[in-house]
């Protein structure tokens, strides 16, 4: 590699005023985790930029990994010099000679965040353009479509040269927006919803309802594997596994069949909310997409949502199934979700659930049933496991954003 460091631009981060410190701290921590196998690197952060000093580590591999870190707007392999014009000129020419191939055109783009520097951007462009033209035979300028755009960044303490801007994943660093409880089924949608919440900085704990013996160990394993995929992106994720058999059996017995799905969802939401409260979460996340199935009509959501005031994030609400599948493939959860094992809702699903349930009706049916002790019991018997990222793996989502 022709560079000794990678310069990282925060993007949206820089607009966050007072919270900036938290964001930078989380981003640094997340980058450290993703690059944990590169022992020699150093990470330096200031208010505007972060730098990864390669110290001989493989820059190309590091670049690939950085594409999967939320909170990075863009990044560039770079070299650094002091602010002595002669040193700068030598460094620029050196770098350019290594990168340039015969016949390639160039331009220079200067960014000057140090406004006190004695040369302005036009002057710098001219000085460096002339210097390169003088020293490299037959070199040509093309300001519209150059093959090489030599970028010069004049900062307060140093100057950086780079020739490439690599787009980052955008979003906010995971953990910078608080914690949400992801209702994770074994399906295609909920892992994608978790991933998209992470993109906006939400730290996730997963909650899964299972109904042994109607659902098998293998369907539980499926959820563990999905959680591990999310952990590969964000770092360790807690998974709460809630025993739900008793409640589902009671619902099947006591609630009219066409309302059993609505009540089931309300109970799942109540229990998730209780687990959220105990774990200091601020939101609940689901994989619902409007109109996809009976429980996802607006009428259903209205009747189900009635049990809590907690914000419910539904990142997929406007998406078509094909869009959701594209993302699930990119984050490598599709194959796991597609394993054929049953899920607690498919086992108990009524033949014809109401697509337009009435809130008052479901409240009325439920008023005859004492759910509270069962809710407490389910929460008490919830098994919580911490799912670590797979040691050697870092899942990429490549060019999704
Ligand atoms: P998914 O693909 O995520 O299973 P879906 O299209 O099958 O979604 P539903 O089965 O109606 O839709 O579930 C809607 C949402 O409810 C899911 O995205 C998930 O957030 C939550 N959910 C459903 N079943 C469970 C479960 N067994 N445990 C936890 N959450 C669940
Ligand atoms: Mg499902």
Automatic annotation (TrEMBL):
Pathway assigned in UniProt: Cofactor biosynthesis; thiamine diphosphate biosynthesis
Name of the molecule in the record: Probable tRNA sulfurtransferase
A Pfam entry, by short name: ThiI
Binding residues annotated for ATP, in chain numbering: 183-184, 208-209, 265, 287, 296
Family statement drawn from the similarity comment of this UniProt entry: Belongs to the ThiI family.
EC number in record: 2.8.1.4
Class of this enzyme: transferase
Record-level GO BP terms: thiamine biosynthetic process; thiamine diphosphate biosynthetic process; thiazole biosynthetic process; tRNA 4-thiouridine biosynthesis
Entry-linked PROSITE patterns: THUMP (PS51165)
Residue ranges annotated for the THUMP domain, each copy included: 60-165
The keyword ATP-binding appears for this protein: yes
Gene3D superfamilies xref list: 3.30.2130.30, HUPs
Organism domain of life: Bacteria
Protein's job: Catalyzes the ATP-dependent transfer of a sulfur to tRNA to produce 4-thiouridine in position 8 of tRNAs, which functions as a near-UV photosensor. Also catalyzes the transfer of sulfur to the sulfur carrier protein ThiS, forming ThiS-thiocarboxylate. This is a step in the synthesis of thiazole, in the thiamine biosynthesis pathway. The sulfur is donated as persulfide by IscS.
Compartments reported by the entry: Cytoplasm
A Gene Ontology term for the protein's cellular component: cytosol
NCBIfam families cross-referenced by the UniProt entry: tRNA uracil 4-sulfurtransferase ThiI (TIGR00342)
UniProt entry keywords in alphabetical sequence: ATP-binding, Cytoplasm, Nucleotide-binding, RNA-binding, Thiamine biosynthesis, Transferase, tRNA-binding
Database matches in InterPro entries: Rossmann-like_a/b/a_fold, ThiI_AANH, ThiI_fer, ThiI_N, THUMP_dom, THUMP_ThiI, tRNA_STrfase, tRNA_sulfurtransferase_ThiI
UniProt KW Transferase keyword: yes
The reaction(s) this protein catalyses: [ThiI sulfur-carrier protein]-S-sulfanyl-L-cysteine + a uridine in tRNA + 2 reduced [2Fe-2S]-[ferredoxin] + ATP + H(+) = [ThiI sulfur-carrier protein]-L-cysteine + a 4-thiouridine in tRNA + 2 oxidized [2Fe-2S]-[ferredoxin] + AMP + diphosphate; [ThiS sulfur-carrier protein]-C-terminal Gly-Gly-AMP + S-sulfanyl-L-cysteinyl-[cysteine desulfurase] + AH2 = [ThiS sulfur-carrier protein]-C-terminal-Gly-aminoethanethioate + L-cysteinyl-[cysteine desulfurase] + A + AMP + 2 H(+)
Gene Ontology MF: a single term: ATP binding
